[in-house]
Amino acid sequence: MTTSLSGRLSAELSNLRSSGLLIKPRVLDGANRARTRVDGREVVNLASNNYLGFADHPRLKEKAAAYLREWGVGAGAVRTIAGTLRIHEELEQQLAAFKHTGSALVLHSGFTTNQGVLGTLLKEGDLVISDALNHASIIDGLRLTKATKKVYKHADADDLERLLQENETDGLKLVVTDGVFSMDGDLAPLDKLIAVARKYGAVTYVDDAHGSGVMGKDGRGTVHHFGFENADDVIQVGTLSKAWGGVGGYAAGHADLRELLINRARPYLFSTAQPPAVVGGLVAAIEEVQRDPSLMRRLWDNTHYFKAELSRLGFDTMGSVTPITPVLFGEPEAAFEASRLLFEEGVFAVGLGFPTVPRGSARIRNIVTAEHTRADLDQALEAYDKVGRKLKIVG
User: Origin, by domain of life (predicted)?
Assistant: First the structure.
């Protein structure tokens, strides 16, 4: 008997409910800021990726409004037909200069950027070696290619070298890693990984979604943090959401990379260009992070304070060294209950379990921002202490 649509939907939703994995997103009643209203309650927001407070920043809103008035609501076409406005190319030139790369191209999201760039670069006969904890968008992007795929142990340069030794090819060799890993908050050891890649003639591909705007001078990213800017054998991709407050993705690297992507990257070829207001906000974001060094300083001051205080209270932050600060609860039921109790205390922090993170490592992922005040963080820490004691996570 043929499965009906109604039957399929009902069965899939039932499976999600019974496994405790059915997602019901909370609804924000205001702008995504360090303090906001969620489901009618005022909360300290530790759930967003708004690292620099740009999502509701007055300078970004002013520039977005100006671009909206001058250039309209939408671009009106895909970039390769009639959708490339001068402001798109100006943003890409600005981004390449900021990243210290030969070229840059803006795409529609970080997810589609990985699909587009990996799909363009990799062919049958090529070799790609990917970190075991890389983002889902990298995994999905690689599934679309015919390259030989291998996975090295997380952040393990020795295992990467083993795989490069064991898998010779005359094709392109690509080593793929996140810059900052989104669930654990640790850094890829790019100094070691790039050295190994170069030893075997491989190109290094860094998804810096959580490092761009956070790591390196003026937020230039993890590649800059490790001193590899101006390197033609390193490709940087990432989002223009998160720290940048808008939406979109970018690919930056070799001077010829942009031109090839314009001609071959399917998400670029078949999607309408970014709206002018989004472009204006992104232009302002890159200007602002260089104009106001206090943004990065506050981000990292808040990060160090929050981590230290969580550790003092007895929580396991899993060795994170970035503003992404996981708190380990182990089992998903404990993480989800802690999230619920924190919300009752006025703190919005989301629990994560399998399959988002490995079994036995369910956690709450907290992200502090430059916009949080010390009072915000102290309120969150007081709530964590109360909830942790109630659940017997800390003594």
Answer: Bacteria
Q: In whole angstroms, what is the distance from residue 382 CA to residue 374 CA?
A: 12
pTM for this prediction: 0.95
Q: Which tens digits make up the pLDDT trace of 24-48?
A: 899 999 999 999 999 999 999 999 9
Q: In this structure, how many other beta carbons lie within 10 angstroms of the beta carbon of residue 297? A: 11
The first and second tokens of residue 13, run together, are: 């939703």
| 278/68 Cα distance (integer angstroms) | 9
- Rounded to an integer, what distance in angstroms lies between the CA atom of residue 216 and that of residue 199? 25
Q: Give me 44's structure tokens.
A: 């300290």
Contact (Cβ atoms closer than 8 angstroms) between residue 109 and residue 247: yes
Residue type (1 letter), 291: R
Sheet architecture: strand order including 148-152:
103-107, 249-253, 234-239, 203-207, 173-178, 127-131, 148-152
C-beta of residue 219 within 8 angstroms of C-beta of residue 289: yes
Q: How far apart are the first and last CA of the chain?
A: 57
Judge whether residue 395 has pLDDT over 90. Answer: no
Catalytic residues: 182, 210, 242
Give the chain's domains with CATH numbers. 23-55+293-390 (3.90.1150.10), 58-291 (3.40.640.10)
Query: What pLDDT does 66 receive?
Result: 98
Residue type, position 302, single letter = N
Q: Residue 63 corresponds to which tokens in the numbers above? A: 């520039």
